[in-house]
TrEMBL record:
<dbReference type="InterPro" id="IPR042174">
    <property type="entry name" value="RecF_2"/>
</dbReference>
<comment type="function">
    <text>The RecF protein is involved in DNA metabolism; it is required for DNA replication and normal SOS inducibility. RecF binds preferentially to single-stranded, linear DNA. It also seems to bind ATP.</text>
</comment>
<dbReference type="GO" id="GO:0006302">
    <property type="term" value="P:double-strand break repair"/>
</dbReference>
<keyword id="KW-0963">Cytoplasm</keyword>
<dbReference type="GO" id="GO:0003697">
    <property type="term" value="F:single-stranded DNA binding"/>
</dbReference>
<keyword id="KW-0067">ATP-binding</keyword>
<feature type="domain" description="RecF/RecN/SMC N-terminal">
    <location>
        <begin position="2"/>
        <end position="365"/>
    </location>
</feature>
<dbReference type="Pfam" id="PF02463">
    <property type="entry name" value="SMC_N"/>
</dbReference>
<keyword id="KW-0227">DNA damage</keyword>
<dbReference type="GO" id="GO:0005737">
    <property type="term" value="C:cytoplasm"/>
</dbReference>
<keyword id="KW-0547">Nucleotide-binding</keyword>
<dbReference type="GO" id="GO:0000731">
    <property type="term" value="P:DNA synthesis involved in DNA repair"/>
</dbReference>
<protein>
    <recommendedName>
        <fullName>DNA replication and repair protein RecF</fullName>
    </recommendedName>
</protein>
<feature type="binding site">
    <location>
        <begin position="30"/>
        <end position="37"/>
    </location>
    <ligand>
        <name>ATP</name>
    </ligand>
</feature>
<comment type="similarity">
    <text>Belongs to the RecF family.</text>
</comment>
<dbReference type="InterPro" id="IPR001238">
    <property type="entry name" value="DNA-binding_RecF"/>
</dbReference>
<dbReference type="InterPro" id="IPR018078">
    <property type="entry name" value="DNA-binding_RecF_CS"/>
</dbReference>
Amino acid sequence: MFLNSIELQNYRNYRELKLATPNKVNVFLGPNAQGKTNLLEAIFALALSKSHRTSKDKELIGWQGDTARIAGEVSKRYGNVTLDLTYSSQGKKAKINGLEQRKLSNFIGSVNVVMFAPEDLEIVKGSPGVRRRFLDMEIGQVQPGYLHTLTQYGKVLQQRNNYLKTASPGSVNNAMLDVWNMQLAEFGVKIMKKRKHFIHKLQTFAEQIHAGITNGTEKLTIHYRPSFDTDAMQDESVLFDQFMIKLTQVKDQEIRRGVTLAGPHRDDLAFFINGKEAQIFGSQGQQRTTALSLKLAEIELINEEIGEYPLLLLDDVLSELDQNRQTQLIETFQDKVQTFITTTGLESVNMAKLQDAGIYHVRDGSVTI
Ligand SMILES: Nc1ncnc2c1ncn2[C@@H]1O[C@H](COP(=O)(O)OP(=O)(O)OP(=O)(O)O)[C@@H](O)[C@H]1O
């Protein structure tokens, strides 16, 4: 897919922007704090209806007004589509080809993106929550139904946790807890199965890409670590039963601690390089390469799932990669995906390798070619 143009109104530090993006590679160049990342964030939001760096939509609204708007025209396999997203204190409104979408899930994924930013190193180095967010964002893009299940799971989890906080060992309403357990397991099983499936596919691509970047010296493997031991991923009813059994096992502990201890909200995944866990034993360079391999794998995975390559958003990352890895990155995306790069200086970008590049100067919320 290809983003032909983007339009912003009162979005972050952009009062009004209309930008044609006819090139395969688009480099946004400028000093710090001018609005380069804000531009990538807006493209990201057009794909997922939310920012990659904040969960608070109101932060996206420019200080000069009370509504922010992002619009874009995207060429896809079957034709052009216009997307329009408005944020206000009342929430967000999304339109596809001028038609307002009652469900945001119809809008999400109309354009697909893969973002690679310095903080992605945290997917390897950081806490399980970062990895779960990574999984959820990526699966949600290709399967919007997943996000709906996740929301339903979150609601049950919250109610269950609220109840556990007030319950004491002598005063447990078992009938009520059973109802929540069943709902938690019903949605939880769906989430776990989707995660398992996604990780399996990601592994296939990431292993190949990682081997390419490291000249075959490193084998990357990705392991799903659910919150309870199970090998019953294929059979939903067996997995459901195991989930229910686990909840029974941890019941007393949950009542004591006032929190739900089993379920996908406590899942994790682990990355191994040549059999050694990258989070613990990997060097900074190996961890960075792992994060890069994951992102490049996502590009292939999205193509496989939806039959079209996503847009690639590279936020200030080229300067962090050595020549070898930069070349690998550029060669991987160049022919396949339209790319948007932010940088503070062209010297950090291997321009000689880039074909069909448009360079845009970003200054204080305005863009010139
Ligand atoms: N809601 C908002 N309304 C107006 N301006 C905002 C809003 N949110 C952030 N900004 C401004 O946007 C600017 C930051 O833009 P951005 O994060 O895109 O920087 P950048 O050009 O990517 O810089 P760097 O190279 O440091 O990453 C800051 O000047 C900040 O004050």
